[in-house]
Amino acid sequence: MATAPSPSATKAAFERRGALELNRLLRAFPRKAFLSWRAAFGTYMSRARVRRRVRRASRPVPPEIVRHYTRIAREQSRFRSTRGQLEFERSKELIRRFLPRHRAVIYDVGGGPGTYSFWLARRGHEVHLVDPVPLHLRQARKRAKREPRSAPSAFLVGDARQLSFPSSSADLVLLMGPLYHLPRETDRRRALQEAHRVLKPGGRLIGVGVSRFTSMLDGSWEGYLSDPKFVRIVRRDLRTGEHRNPEEVPAYWTTAFFSHPRELAREIRGAGFHLHGTFAIEGFVWWVPNLDRKWLDPVLRRRLLQLLRVTEEEPTLIGMGPHIMFVARKPIRRRRS
Ligand SMILES: C[S@@+](CC[C@H](N)C(=O)[O-])C[C@H]1O[C@@H](n2cnc3c(N)ncnc32)[C@H](O)[C@@H]1O
To answer: Which ligand 1 atom sits closest to the C-alpha of 57?
Structure first.
């Protein structure tokens, strides 16, 4: 009479059969195919890791920057002053020269409360506003309720180093803020890589850097050089471009990066863009004495702006004003035939 096998004997037989089966399968599977599959899988995994690494912002936006824009800076009303009007009018003038003629998809990254977003949406473009400061987005949404016809299509809390937009989806990206708030070169590179990723081939990038010499000129003008702490800040700015204000003195701004115009151009090209040019936004006009009065005189204002246009790309003057605009293009890669 056959006796039922014991449970342990059944398990052993089952394992033996499994091992034999696995051996048979491995022998049948060509070694070459196995190796190439393993190599392909490894490459896929490392690419995925690189992709994730590139797209993940390693650290959050420094809290002092968010505090500065929430408590001290008045971004919503910045353009009301004379110098603010100079900056806004000149930035619009420069942007207009490079705007696509058709209805474009535009990402205004670091767009603050959306001053440029509203202007561009009013001109018929599809604008998505991104900023890390919640106050700015609340202000933009509130304005959208008052001005629904010129409102951006989306308001997103976000960081230039990790955008949530799909690749190759924008005709134009504005980076008018993030690059000068990222003191580390790796972070600026990441922001530029993200702009490159989301732009369509042939799409434009318009960005702004703050000049390396800004705190020296501003401190001399405003009288901050009587404070030795400010002098230390300026010395560091001139040496490294890294602007830090550890005591958060309101007049001394917040964590920033001041670019040398030549370095700015190098960083843009280094991220794979074709650089059209760099332009002084306010140039020497920023420092004209009694500008409030002169700006109200239409003849003087026109003359100042004309002279600024003549010198806007002059390398020896470009770092004189606080803001430098650059215009670049993501190259169209042609398929090899
Ligand atoms: C001086 S404001 C400029 C706002 C607007 N683009 C303009 O030109 O009027 C600088 C902006 O950059 C934003 N910002 C700072 N760091 C950023 C980052 N890592 N990613 C995106 N935006 C950032 C700030 O929140 C702020 O709204």
So the answer is: 19
Q: Which atom of ligand 1 is nearest to the CA of 208?
A: 8
Tell me if 21 is assigned to some domain. no
Same domain, 201 and 312: yes
DSSP string, 113-125: TTHHHHHHHHTT-
**CA 36 to ligand 1 center in whole angstroms:** 47
Atom 5 of ligand 1 has which residue's CA nearest to it? Answer: 111
Long-range contacts of 301-305 (CB under 8 A, 24+ apart): 305/90
Could you identify the atom of ligand 1 that is nearest to the CA of residue 73?
1
Could you tell me the residue range of the domain that residue 48 belongs to?
29-58
**Which two three-digit tokens encode residue 23?**
């051996």
Residue 40 and residue 166 in one domain:
no
Same domain, 198 and 246: yes
Let me know whether 42 and 124 are in one domain. no
Residue 256 φ then ψ, to 5°: -155, 175
When divided into structural domains, the chain yields a total of 2
Domain check: are 50 and 187 in the same one? no
> Cα–Cα distances in Å, from 41 out to 26, 29, 34, 38, 55?
18, 17, 10, 5, 21
Give the Å distance between the CA of 176 and the centre of ligand 1. 7
pTM of the entire predicted model: 0.83
Asked whether 75 lines ligand 1 (CB < 6 A), one says yes
Phi, psi of 244 (to 5 degrees): -125, 140
pLDDT tens digits for range 134-191: 999 999 999 999 999 999 999 999 999 999 999 999 999 999 999 999 999 999 999 9
